[in-house]
Amino acid sequence: MHKRQFITTLSGVTLAGISGLTRAQRLGTPGVTGSEIKIGQTLPLSGPAASYATNGKAMAAWFDLVNAEGGINGRKLKLVQLDDGYSPPKTVEQSRRLVEREQVAFIALPVGTPTGVAARGYFNSAKVPQLFIGSGAATWTDDVAKFPWSLGWQPLFTDEGRTLAKHILQTRPNAKVAVLYQNDDAGKDLLRGLKDGLGVAVKQIVREESHEVTDPTVDSQVISMQASGADVLVMWGSPKATIQSLRKAHDIGWRPTIYINQNSSSVPTVLTSVGLDKAKGVISAAFLKDPADPTWKNDPGLQAWSAFMDKYNRGAAKDYNAVYGTCVAQTVVQVLKQCANDLTRENIVRQTRRLDLELPMMLPGLRIKTSDAHPHPVTGLRLQQFDGTSWKLMSV
Predict the structure, then answer these.
(1) CB-CB contact of 153 with 133 (8 Å)
(2) Domains of the chain listed by start with CATH number
(3) Residue 181 CB contacts under 8 Å (≥ 6 apart), including other chains
(4) pLDDT of 73-111, one tens digit each?
(5) Which of 289-293, 315-319, 334-338 has the lowest mean pLDDT?
(6) Does the keyword Lyase apply (predicted)?
(7) CB–CB of 31/365 below 8 Å?
(8) Three-state secondary structure call for residue 320
(9) For 11-20, b where at least 16 C-beta lie within 10 A, e where not — what string?
C-alpha cells in the first residue's frame, strides 16, 4: 500500500451519525473500555541493553501522574511492559503476547532498532499501531508506505550522522576519521548519514569498526582505530560500549576529537562511569535537556520534571533516558487527547499525523510538528560538548 493510499484510508474511516465512543465499542477496539486504555511495551528489562529500561520506567511513571489527575477523558492508562532482553526473536514473541493475550490497544515506545524491525511485520499484518519506537533508524520513514502502522519518534540516526559530518568539515576539514558503530540498522544508519554528510571528504574515513551489542568489550576495536592514525573518533553504540570505548581510548593515551551518540550521552550513567575528566571534550548531538547539566538548574521545565520524578519515579536515575521516556509518554498522551472518544486504531495512527506541540524537556527551538507528508515527530538536533562537568550547547 502506498503512503497516499494509507492516508486516504485513514481519513476515510468515518461512520456518519455514530459517536466516536459508540464506534470504538462497536468495532471492539481491544484494550479500550469506558474506563481504561491498555497500552503495551516491549523493552530490555534484562540483558546487555538493560540500561534502556529507564525509558519504560519513566513512561509508566508519567502515566501514573496522568491517572492520578483523572486519566484521559475519564479513562485510566494501563501500561503492560514485557521484557525482551533486546533479543529480536523474543521481541516478536512478546509482541504477539501483548496483542493476542493481553489485548492491548496499541504499542508505545518499544525499545530498540533490531527488536522494532523484527516485530514490525507482525504489527502491520495485525494492523496494530507500533508507535514512537525507541530508535532513530531511517527505516521508520523510508518504509512508511510499506509499514504504515509503525512510527519512530526521535531524530533519525542518518540525520545525526549528517550533523556530525557537517561539524567535522567545519572544524577539522583535514581530519582522519575512525568510526565505531553498532552492527545493526541503527549503527549502519549513523554510518550512512556520516558518509553522506562528508560527501567527497568520505575518503577521510581511515578506519571502520563494528561491534555487536552482546560483545563483552570493544577494546580491540579501539586499539585498531588508534593504530589507523585517526584524530577524530565517531562512536555509536549502547551506553555499555560507549563507556568502554571512552575509557579504553583514554587509558591507551589516544586523544582524538570524540563524538558519541545522543542515546549514550547521560552524565550520571555514562560519563561518570567513564570518569568525568576522561570524558572532557566529548561532543554529542542532542534534542533533549540533560537533567545533570547545571545549565538547566533554574529551567522551569526541568524543575517540573524533577518534581514529577521525585513523586512518581522516586529512586530512579534522573538521566537522559528518563527524560526520553517522559517525553514519549507526553506525546502518547497528546495523541490520545486528540482522539477524544474515537479510539479506533485507525484514528490513533491518524492523530500521530496531527501533532503540533512543544515539550518542556526538549532543547530550545525544537518542536514536534507532524503531518500526513511528514509523520516523523522529532527532526531537529543541536550539538553540545562536555566540559568536564556539564554539557554546553555549541554555536557551531
Answers:
(1) yes
(2) 3-155+300-380 (3.40.50.2300), 157-286 (3.40.50.2300)
(3) 187, 188, 190, 191, 208, 209, 210, 211, 234, 235, 236, 237
(4) 999 999 999 999 999 999 999 999 999 999 999 999 999
(5) 289-293
(6) no
(7) no
(8) helix
(9) eeeeeeeeeb
Q: What count of residues does the chain have?
A: 396
Give the contacts of 232 (CB within 8 A, at least 6 positions apart): 168, 172, 175, 176, 177, 178, 256, 257, 258, 259
Kindly tell me if the per-residue pLDDT of 18 is higher than 50: no
Closest CA to 106 of 137, 121, 127: 127
CB-CB contact of 98 with 104 (8 Å): yes
Rounded CA gap, 396 and 394, in Å?
6
The two beta strands, 368-369 and 382-386, are: unpaired
Q: For 101-116, what is each residue's pLDDT tens digit?
A: 999 999 999 999 899 9
CB 186 within 8 A of CB 139: no
Side-by-side strand order, sheet with 76-83: 76-83, 36-43, 106-108, 130-133, 150-152
**Cell matching residue 382:** 543541536
Cell of 125: 499484518
336-348 pLDDT, tens digit per residue, is: 999 999 999 999 9
Contact indicator for 149, 374 with CB cutoff of 8 Å: no
| CA atoms of 161 and 166, how far apart (whole Å) | 9
Average of pLDDT values for 3-9?
Answer: 40
Phi, psi of 354, deg, nearest 5: -130, 30
Quote the CA–CA distance of 233 and 37 in Å, as a whole number: 45
Where does the pLDDT of residue 204 fall: very low under 50, low under 70, confident under 90, or very high at 90 and above?
very high
The whole-angstrom separation of Cα 215 and Cα 48 is 9
